[in-house]
Design a protein that fits this description.
Elements (H helix, E strand, L loop, with lengths): L7 E4 L5 H12 L3 E6 L3 H13 L4 E5 L5 H15 L4 E4 L15 H28 L4 E6 L12 H21 L4 E8 L8 H5 L1 H7 L11 H12 L10 E4 L3 H4 L5
Parallel strand pairs: 1-2, 1-4, 2-3, 4-5, 5-6, 6-7
Helix pairs in contact: 1-2, 1-8, 3-4, 4-5
Length: 258
């Protein structure tokens, strides 16, 4: 306990799923938390309550991280409330459209890229500027996906955004190493969050979906949060520019039986 004492973490999309679980895990380990949401105010408030139940402070900020003026406000509120931000977890994103490229509306493609890539770039930009102005140090965790590597028909918008986010992580790690800022990515496989609501609601569908996963189950958000905690803590001070896949072995099984 206490691995994040005196730290402040900003977790985008912390109103549900992995973001919610991570915000609570960070609070359990001593961090105050900036809870960010886009639409689900009730979910954000629930996260706040659970953070405070662990004796930590929380502030809720509604912001669309795909727009720089809103990112500026997000950081402004965070710094006004807590004085500093030490950990950035870029978690917020939208799911794949399910539309093939030939039929994909370009505005829809742009919306996905804005949410899943532009927003992360903007948050990284303002976090790095803030940390440099305060003597350096800090942790950035970019939540990508196994689809940074594995293509999915109908997922060009999502796959492109996650692949690009992996390269952002690698590039930024080189740029800010001299400032002692660690930048890593976390690539989950199937996780039981609202992204996979059908699997949560339908046990038969879930059982079918997990057959390609060697461990034969999906992850819980709290499991992803444990890995995020490692990347946010001093335990990972010598880790940067790396990606951590957490998928029950799914990526290792791709191509089996071919």
């Amino acid at each position: 306990m206490g691995r994040l004492e005196q730290k402040v973490a900003l977790v985008t999309g912390s109103d549900s799923g992995i973001g919610h679980a991570t915000a609570v895990e960070f609070a359990r380990e001593g961090a105050d938390v900036v809870v960010n949401y886009l639409e689900d105010e009730h979910g954000a408030d629930q996260t706040r309550k659970e953070v405070e139940a662990h004796g930590r402070r929380a502030v809720i900020v509604q912001a669309d991280h795909g727009y720089e003026d809103q990112v500026e406000r997000l950081f402004s509120v965070a710094i006004e409330e807590f004085g500093h931000v030490d950990i950035l977890m870029n978690n917020a994103s939208v799911d794949a459209s399910g539309v093939h490229v030939a039929d994909l509306d370009f505005e829809a493609f742009q919306r996905t890229i804005r949410s899943n890539l532009f927003g992360q770039v903007l948050c990284c930009k303002h976090f790095v500027r803030h940390r440099k102005a305060n003597g350096g140090g800090g942790k950035i965790i970019n939540v990508t996906s196994i689809h940074e590597d594995i293509p999915n028909a109908g997922g060009a918008d999502y796959d492109c955004s996650k692949g690009a986010l992996r390269m952002l992580t690698r590039t930024l790690a080189l740029e800010v190493a001299e400032d002692a800022i660690n930048v890593n990515s976390l690539a989950p496989g199937m996780v039981l969050t609202p992204f996979n609501q059908k699997a949560i609601d339908d046990p038969a569908f879930l059982e079918k979906q997990v057959q390609s996963i060697p461990l034969k189950r999906a992850a819980q958000p709290e499991e992803i949060a444990k890995l995020a905690l490692f990347l946010a803590s001093s335990d990972s001070d010598y880790v940067t520019g790396s990606e951590y896949v957490m998928d029950g072995g799914l990526m290792r099984s791709v191509g089996q039986g071919a």
